[in-house]
TrEMBL record:
Organism the protein comes from: Roseicyclus marinus
CDD domains documented for this protein: Bacterial_IMPase_like_1
Annotated positions binding Mg(2+): 58, 74, 76-77, 201
Similarity comment: Belongs to the inositol monophosphatase superfamily.
Keywords, in A-Z order: Hydrolase, Magnesium, Metal-binding
Record's protein name: Histidinol-phosphatase
Cofactor annotation: Mg(2+)
Amino acid sequence: MADAARTAILPHFRNPALLTEDKGIGRFDPVTEADRAAETAMRAILAQYRPEDAILGEEQGTKSGTSGLTWVIDPIDGTRAFMSGTPTWGVLIALCDATGPLYGLIDQPHIGERFEGGFGRAQLTGPRGTHPLQTRATAALSDAILFSTFPEVGTPQERAGFEAVRDRVKLIRYGMDCYAYALLAAGQIDLVIEAGLAAYDICAPIAVIEAAGGIVTDWQGGPVHAGGRALAAANPDIHAAALAILKTIRHG
């Protein structure tokens, strides 16, 4: 599925003829011909090999299944980055049951990096070969690196929670889309905090990060595979420190 998505997407990346539309959902929410082509390609493979499984995809919605398993797919997570030419977008694929993600994949076709987690696997395959994924051991917020896609996180109340953590960390960077979660799993950063996510934004990152030793919850410490407010952390200590702050904020 990831290989098929790469084939469908790469001819469109940094192509001046790329066709982009606004979905018209709130603030500018683009979809491109590459998004649609990649999801169509992935669904065709599932129809051939896993017809009994359900599918939840960003562009084509839900297909019911009978197996109790659901493929949660985002053909291009970070379409704004994709249309702008930055390589922080990625293909997200997760296999879930009723309890949440069992396996996840974050694929960056332009860079050629693939992050996988689940079924005993936690690995990065890329230009430098294949290596295990392992999250960092940072314990103190004052030593932590925090990423988020947008500085204007969610509602004003949610933004206040994010900023309360932001003001206590060593370094904050923005605009990373799903690549932020991949870097957390790879041991490069410590925290990702976001709000307003859909299931297809977070299921694959959950599986990859948890397989690498990290933790992903909502802002109250509960499951987040259905979407919403996500706190991804490299280890229990840094997760507890950030969560303690987020819990004190009235999020509305």
